Amino acid sequence: MPELPEVQTTVNGINRSLRGLRITDVWTDYGSPLYENHKQIKSGKFFKKFKKDVVGVKILKAERRAKNVLIHLSNPPSSSSRVTSARQGGNTILVHLKMTGHLLYGEYVKRKTQNVKRDNKKLNASRSTLHEYWSAVERGPLRDDPYNQYIHLVFTLSNGRHLVLSDVRKFAKVTILPTEKLAEEFKQIGPEPLEKSFQLSAFSLQLNKRPKGKIKPVLMDQSVVAGIGNIYSDEILWASSVHPLRSVKSLNARDLKNIFVNIKLILKKGTEFGGDSLQDYRRLDGERGKFQHKHRAYQRTGLPCLKKNCRGTIRRIAIGGRSAHFCDKHQR
User: What fold is seen in the domain 4-185?
Assistant: First the structure.
């Protein structure tokens, strides 16, 4: 799942390339009867409202909250036929990329292919349906990288280009809500670790909400600290010389300070390297991030520890259904 650095990299890309552009159309094939009563675009009924709310509206800027991409829109058009509520404020598109989603920006074209299904009960009978799909116009990572080809949401923009969502497993969530209600939407989410206001004292208070919890899952708890997931928790604890199974209450002042400092350092480093593309995450231009080349613990099972003068080996254990990678010598 994309974590804070991957989501922030996406937000930075949107702010560089899309600010001031107007949304002229939107398409999706996410629709599912399982989501008909949900307030997201997988509901056909909700998607109709979503489309009315976004078409003709300008993209102001993007922000990140935890692992969510927030695309702020201008006020809706003044025409009464386009106003969907009495409120005349702006809306925000909320995108949670979930396991395999990532946003891409480029020029796309909609194509059609014919799917033929044969009826096994009638040897000579078959039926065909037309399937719509989108592909990038120009060769390059947007078109040639397999992970960039699972397009399930397309925003057509006023410059003739497109913002699309590629999502192999179709788990992503996309919705829209009044910008003024964002604080209420995220009231259960913990503080942002890269904010200047997030200091060691605040971090300690947050951890102490779960004193008996194991430190790795506590770091990944979005109500404790926002944005940290499996990859970066492994890297933070490796750099801090703290074992992932340590309980919060067992951590001394030095441990807490090390973890706090490394949260800020490693999340900033992850963003500077454009996120982690060891699996399916890609940047807005379709290129891979480079943080996977900086791993010291994550997915290095059986390899020698890279800490200076450490003779340990990276091990893997399961904690609460998730993997944890750590050095068997210096992490205690």
Answer: N-terminal domain of MutM-like DNA repair proteins (3.20.190)
Does pTM top 0.90 for this prediction?
Answer: yes
Per-residue pLDDT of the chain (332 residues; tens, 9 = 90+): 899 999 999 999 999 999 999 999 999 999 999 999 999 999 999 999 999 999 999 999 999 999 999 999 998 765 444 444 434 569 999 999 999 999 999 999 999 876 655 555 555 555 656 778 999 999 999 999 999 999 999 999 999 999 999 999 999 999 999 999 999 999 999 999 999 999 999 999 999 999 999 999 999 999 999 999 999 999 999 999 999 999 999 999 999 999 999 999 999 999 999 999 999 999 999 999 999 999 999 999 999 999 999 999 999 999 988 999 999 999 99
The torsion angles phi and psi of 176, rounded to 5 degrees, stand at -140, 145
CATH 1.10.8.50 in the chain, residue ranges: 200-327
CATH architecture of 200-327: Orthogonal Bundle (1.10)
